[in-house]
Amino acid sequence: MPFRVGLTGGIASGKSTAAERFAELGAEVIDADRIARELVEPGTPLLERIRRSFGETFFDAEGRLDRRRLREHIFAHPEERARLEAILHPAILKEMERRAAASRAPYVVLVIPLLVEKGLQERVDRVAVVDLPEADQIERLRARDGTDPEQARRILASQAGRAQRLAAADDLLDNSGSRQALRQAVDALHRRYLELANR
Prior knowledge:
Blueprint: E1 3-8, H1 15-24, E2 28-31, H2 32-39, H3 45-54, H4 67-76, H5 78-102, E3 107-111, E4 126-131, H6 134-145, H7 149-158, H8 162-168, E5 171-174, H9 179-197
Parallel strand pairs: 1-3, 1-4, 2-3, 4-5
Helix pairs in contact: 1-9, 2-5, 3-5, 4-5, 6-7
């Protein structure tokens, strides 16, 4: 099994930018959100389970999952979120493990937004947290997705708090500065992970 880094952070914190840089540097990046999208493509068994469980309301005319509408629904109804996660999460984790085991990269970066919330730290060798003040997260979420402030705050409230994520971190990527500064911080961690992976 290759050396594994769990990359996490709150919504709109900059995980995708950090993951992109890790991939450019030669790490294998396995993204939970990307796998989730693949697993609910039209015709997949998981999509049919969601349809049976949640109904046609959350599907578009082409039979695709309306992810934004479903996301808004589950953040407003926490019991529904638990039901969706019970369908998706085991399949996502199984596929992430399969890809990690098959990797030939120097090390693997597992991008898991809910790593801390779901207690998945034991599945990785290091936890890297992309950190950003919550006010900046809300602003970036509004700019990126057009999310209204109240909805943005609900999403943040459903995730681990900043202090909880920082307490779980082995390595911290401060994203309160520029995109370039974040990429440089990833470069430094990459060198460290190569050392650790070769021990």
